[in-house]
């Protein structure tokens, strides 16, 4: 039974290792896209913020916008 458990553990570890390698590859690809965008004049910081906003649910995004506006007003940043 221990050998079967050891095999299962080894297979799980190997899967995680493969996925980590794939994740690194995807991260490298994303970095390349941002570098390409920067090379043609886009503001990468703003692009990252837009990507983050697009991931949000519309209600969460509206709430964030409302809170930001409230804080800006309170601090006189209008």
UniProtKB/TrEMBL annotation:
InterPro entries: GapR-like_DNA-bd. Residues 2-36 form a coiled coil. Keywords: Coiled coil. Residues 6-76 form the GapR-like DNA-binding domain. GO terms for molecular function: DNA binding. NCBIfam families: PRK13694.1 (NF010247). This is GapR-like DNA-binding domain-containing protein.
